[in-house]
C-alpha cells in the first residue's frame, strides 16, 4: 500500500473510532477574573496529541501530563491556551483526553482563555466549535476578543487565515486596529499582549512565517505605544524575536511533536539548542515592568529564558530588554 493510501486509510479508521466514542459532559473553563494586581498569567501552546497517522513523529503523552502538573503546581492566576489543544477538533475522544490531562489545571478554577488553532478546525467545523464553545465562554460568539488581567490587556486573534471568510478576516482586521488604538488611550491599561496561534516569525523547520499577519496585523502592534509581547504557537518549539522595542515569542512546547528551530531566517534571542524543551511561559507585572519567563519541564538542566518590557508611566512608551 502506498504512503498516500496508508495515510487515507488511517484517517478513515480514526474517524470511525472517533465517531463511536461515548459522549461525556465537557469540562468548562471559566474566563472571568477579578481585577487583582500582581497576577501571574501562564501561556502554553500546542497541547495536542500526536495523531494516529503521524507514525513517524514523537509521542509526548508522558511529558505533556508532567508539564501540566508542573504548571498547576506553579499556581498561576490565569491561563492562556495558544491553540492546538487537540489533534482533531471534531473528535469527542480527543476532547475527552484534553479534559483528563487538563484536570490538574482545571481544578485550580483559574480563568482560562483559548486561542483557536488549526487543529481545532480538523473534521466537521460545527462539531469542533461545539466542543470549543462548551468549554470556553469567550468563544461563544466570535473567535477574537480581549481580556484584561492586572491592567494588562490580552488581545486574542484567530490567525487561521485560510479558514476565515473574506468578511470575517476584514472584520477581525478592523477590530484589531480599533482595539489597539482604544487600548493605547485607556488609562486603566498598562500594556498589551497579543495572542494568536500562527507565528508572524519563526525559524521552525516545519512551519513558516504567517505573511498575512506580518503585512496587515503586525504593523498595528508595532505602532502601538503599549504593545509589549506577541505570543504564538503552531511551531512546536520556543523562540524569541525582538523587533524594534517589541518581543515576539513562539511558545509551542506543550507536548505536540517537537520541531527544530534551525533555519536562520530571523535572529532568535534565545540561545538554546535546535530542539527546544517542553515548556510554558509565565507573565507577571511588577509595577511598570512586564516580565515573560519561559519555564521548561523540570527534568534536567535546560536553559531558561526571561524577557522584559518596561512601560514608561509618564508617556506610556515602551522599551524592551533581553
Any chance you could write out the topology, listing elements then pairs?
Layout: H1 3-20, E1 40-44, H2 61-74, E2 78-81, H3 92-101, H4 103-106, E3 112-114, H5 125-135, E4 145-149, E5 152-156, H6 166-185, E6 191-195, H7 211-216, H8 218-223, E7 227-232, E8 238-243, E9 246-251, E10 279-286, E11 289-296, E12 305-311, E13 318-321
Parallel strand pairs: 1-2, 2-3, 5-6, 6-7, 7-9
Antiparallel strand pairs: 1-10, 4-5, 8-9, 10-11, 11-12, 12-13
Overview of this protein structure:
28% of the residues lie in helices and 22% in strands. It has 322 residues and is α/β, with parallel strands linked by helices. The protein has one domain (34-321): Metallo-dependent phosphatases (Purple Acid Phosphatase, chain A, domain 2, 4-Layer Sandwich), CATH 3.60.21. 45% of the residues are buried. Residues 1-23 have low confidence and may be disordered.
In brief:
With 322 residues, the chain is an alpha/beta fold. Helices cover 28% and strands 22% of the residues.
What amount of the residues lies in strands? 15-25%
Cα distance spanning the termini: 52 Å
Helix content: 25-40%
Class of secondary structure makeup:
alpha/beta
Q: State the domain count.
A: 1
CATH architecture: 4-Layer Sandwich
Mean pLDDT: 89
Biggest sheet strand order reads 3-2-1-10-11-12-13
What is the number of beta strands?
13
CATH fold annotation: Purple Acid Phosphatase, chain A, domain 2
Query: What letter string, H or E per element, gives the SSE order?
Result: HEHEHHEHEEHEHHEEEEEEE
Amino acid at each position: 500500500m502506498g504512503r498516500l493510501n496508508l495515510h487515507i486509510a488511517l484517517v478513515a479508521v480514526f474517524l470511525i473510532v472517533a465517531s463511536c466514542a461515548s459522549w461525556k459532559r465537557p469540562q468548562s473553563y471559566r474566563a472571568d477574573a477579578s481585577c487583582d494586581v500582581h497576577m501571574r498569567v501562564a501561556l502554553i501552546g500546542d497541547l495536542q496529541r500526536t495523531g494516529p497517522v503521524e507514525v513517524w513523529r514523537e509521542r509526548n503523552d508522558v511529558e505533556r501530563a508532567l508539564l501540566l502538573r508542573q504548571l498547576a503546581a506553579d499556581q498561576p492566576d490565569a491561563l492562556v491556551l495558544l491553540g492546538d489543544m487537540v489533534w482533531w477538533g471534531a473528535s469527542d475522544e480527543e476532547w475527552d483526553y484534553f479534559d483528563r490531562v487538563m484536570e490538574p489545571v482545571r481544578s485550580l478554577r483559574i480563568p482560562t482563555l483559548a486561542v483557536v488553532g488549526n487543529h481545532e478546525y480538523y473534521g466537521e467545523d460545527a462539531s469542533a466549535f461545539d466542543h470549543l464553545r462548551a468549554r470556553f465562554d469567550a468563544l461563544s460568539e466570535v473567535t477574537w476578543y480581549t481580556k484584561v488581567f492586572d491592567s494588562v490587556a490580552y488581545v486574542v486573534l484567530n490567525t487561521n487565515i485560510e479558514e476565515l471568510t473574506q468578511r470575517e478576516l476584514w472584520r477581525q482586521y478592523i477590530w484589531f486596529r480599533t482595539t489597539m488604538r482604544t487600548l493605547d488611550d485607556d488609562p486603566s491599561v498598562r500594556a498589551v499582549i497579543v495572542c494568536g496561534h500562527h507565528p508572524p516569525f519563526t525559524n521552525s523547520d516545519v512551519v513558516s512565517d504567517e505573511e498575512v499577519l506580518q503585512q496587515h496585523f503586525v504593523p498595528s502592534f508595532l505602532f502601538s505605544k503599549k504593545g509589549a509581547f506577541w505570543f504564538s504557537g503552531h511551531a512546536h518549539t520556543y523562540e524569541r524575536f525582538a523587533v524594534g522595542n517589541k518581543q515576539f515569542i513562539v511558545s509551542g512546547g506543550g507536548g505536540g511533536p517537537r520541531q527544530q528551530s534551525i533555519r536562520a531566517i530571523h535572529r532568535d534571542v534565545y540561545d538554546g539548542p535546535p530542539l527546544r524543551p517542553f515548556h510554558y511561559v509565565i507573565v507577571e507585572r511588577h509595577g511598570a515592568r512586564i516580565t515573560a519567563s519561559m519555564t521548561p519541564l523540570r527534568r534536567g538542566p535546560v536553559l531558561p529564558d526571561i524577557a522584559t518590557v518596561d512601560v514608561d508611566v509618564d508617556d506610556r512608551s515602551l522599551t524592551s530588554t533581553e
